[in-house]
Design brief:
Number of strands: 2
Strand order of the largest sheet: 1-2
Strand content: under 5%
Largest sheet: 2 strands, antiparallel
Structural class: mainly alpha
Radius of gyration: 21 Å
Number of domains: 2
Length: 162
């Protein structure tokens, strides 16, 4: 029970520090001040975090999909690269109601929707939440553009795309 309480307290403190951390897109902190010379996140508590993580894994309480495995410097083009990756593979799949998941359209494609979605979620969790927000904004813009194109062609008497 005490390990659960300690884990929740540390997670809450980390979330509070992340909320106040530098946004990689703007270079500003959440409160609007510059943080170019700031100390890395949780540096003095590294030993406690390492030991807590080891104990949580040993007790079977760890969730590998929620874990942050590597910290990186900001990657400006990451949301754009992920957009291209998602579009490349999602366009090769379709939703199957019987399975309740994405399945490949052609038998020659070696794709599976479940691992693709799980991998993307795990990858996005490794970076600042602004990357996820930017990727979702790009995907929303893609959908809006295609809907506008489809409806503009049907209004003109065309058959729409495809």
């Amino acid at each position: 029970q005490s390990l659960v309480t300690m884990d929740k307290a540390v997670v809450q403190e980390v979330r509070a520090q992340i909320a106040n951390s530098k946004d990689p897109g703007t270079g500003d902190t959440a409160n609007g001040t510059s943080s170019a010379g700031s100390v890395p996140l949780l540096q003095p508590k590294e030993k406690i975090l390492t030991e807590l993580a080891r104990l949580v894994r040993a007790c079977g309480m760890a969730d590998p999909f929620q874990a942050v495995y590597v910290t990186t410097t900001p990657l400006e083009a990451l949301p754009t690269v992920l957009l291209l990756f998602v579009l490349h593979y999602v366009l090769r799949m379709e939703f199957d109601k019987a399975f309740g998941t994405l399945v490949r359209r052609r038998g020659s494609d070696h794709l599976d929707g479940g691992p693709l979605v799980t991998g993307m979620a795990c990858l996005l969790r490794q970076f600042h939440p602004s990357y996820t927000k930017e990727l979702l904004l790009y995907l929303g813009q893609y959908v809006r553009a295609h809907l506008q194109y489809a409806f503009s062609n049907t209004a003109d008497g065309g058959m729409g795309p495809g």
